[in-house]
Amino acid sequence: MSIFAERLETAMKQAQLTSAQLAKATGIGRSSISQWLSSKYVAKHDKVVTLASVLQVDPEWLLGANVTAEPELVAASVDPELAAIWEQLDAAGHKKLLKKARKLVAKT
């Protein structure tokens, strides 16, 4: 079993989600999740970000880049669409998005 498959399975167990529930929560097909769990394929980056967001783990941990034994929980659940947008931005874009988000939070 690949590191990605092992960590995906671990994160799913920790989140108490079945493949069907994860598919519904992420919008990713059950067949894709099944293929990842069986080590047939590894998810592409955008899918890893979406999975990590729903499972509340670090995408780097999910991919095996972080060698710690336990998943690193994300501080707060992040909408997969927002995470995907964040990944498309460079450092300057991150700063602009954070500035706008702070203004939006200040209005509420």
UniProtKB/TrEMBL annotation:
SMART domains: HTH_XRE. Residues 8-62 form the HTH cro/C1-type domain. It comes from the Bacteria. Keywords: DNA-binding, Transcription, Transcription regulation. The keyword Transcription regulation applies. CDD domains: HTH_XRE. SUPFAM superfamilies: lambda repressor-like DNA-binding domains. This is Helix-turn-helix domain-containing protein. InterPro entries: Cro/C1-type_HTH, Lambda_DNA-bd_dom_sf.
